[in-house]
Amino acid sequence: MTENWHVFIDVDGTLVDYNNHLPESAVQAIREARANGHKVYAVTGRSKAEMYDEILDIGLDGYIGGNGNYIEADNEALMHLAIPIEDVQKIVNWLHDKNLEYYVEANSGLYGSQNFRERGKETMRLYVEGKGVKTDETFSVDDGFPQMIYGAEPVRDDVNKISFILNTYQDYLDATEYFTGFQVNTWGGKGEHALFGDVARGGINKRTALEFLEAHHQLDPNYTIAIGDAKVDIPMLEYAAVGVAVGNGGEEIKAMADYVTDAVSDDGLYNAFKHFGLI
Fold first, then answer.
1. Can you say whether residue 66 is alpha, beta or left, with left for phi > 0 and alpha for psi between -120 and 50 degrees?
2. Which domain of life is it from (predicted)?
3. 40 closest CA partner among 66, 18, 14
């Protein structure tokens, strides 16, 4: 490719595997692409607090977090549509009343509820193993969330979304009924086998973030590539001129993608960059 492209990459399951392992080939691909004049952005459900140094040290042109509600480019925060603090209080109160353990995803940190570490061990084990990663009896919530903060005030003004453990699928149905006007999702499984629910502001997704960047940076959507692995990534693949699914992704995103590359652990990102001439 002789043109300069904007490349948008999901993080979990695309840039890193579900053991949080970052392949060296992915680092190499991003650095070579940027050296060739292309722009590379991470687009993730993670809040800024989860963008650990290992990822930031790759060198990126921008970061989109909270599945679209926070946008940073060239080390400048361009947008942050946090959940209003009164709504954060409403969500936390509802979860307490339902005896649901949760964690608050804020730019300043991840804040776990009182019993999340204990209650979440089995749920996190099922989530990780569902992504093909083997665990043993030593596995803990801390393996998945090494910087989770416990005992702090959960009601904050920089919250992107709040995830909670589903005791039953009915908890998700109750949340969708109660939190009208919000975006309520499940993750970590399909349908009634989902492990988590989450609550975020309505009307925001990875596509709306890319549309914001298009207007703000005057980028040409005809020279955009989006790479992802999950249903939540589909809106940005639909927006981009080229949509790429990784081989370990779900069947739904692979069916709609323009191209399916290899799995994360099989140098999928590097191979996609090579295929499209970014490197």
1. left
2. Bacteria
3. 14
CATH number at residue 259: 3.40.50.1000
Q: Indicate the helix (H) or strand (E) that contains 64.
A: strand 62-65
Residues near 151 by beta carbon (within 8 Å), at least 6 away in sequence:
114
Question: Is the distance from CB of 260 to CB of 250 less than 8 angstroms?
Answer: no
pLDDT digits 0-9 by tens, 217-274: 888 999 999 999 988 999 999 999 999 999 999 899 999 999 999 999 999 999 999 9
Position 48 scores a pLDDT of 86
Instruction: Kindly indicate the confidence band of residue 2, based on its pLDDT and cuts at 50, 70 and 90.
Output: low
User: How do 224-228 and 149-150 pair as beta strands?
Assistant: unpaired
Note the pLDDT tens digit of each residue in 39-51. Answer: 999 999 888 888 8
How many domains does the chain contain in total? 2
Domain that holds residue 115: 85-201
- The residues that bridge with 249 in the sheet, in sequence order, are none
Length of the chain: 279
pTM of the model: 0.85
Measured CA to CA, the distance from residue 15 to residue 23 in angstroms comes to: 8
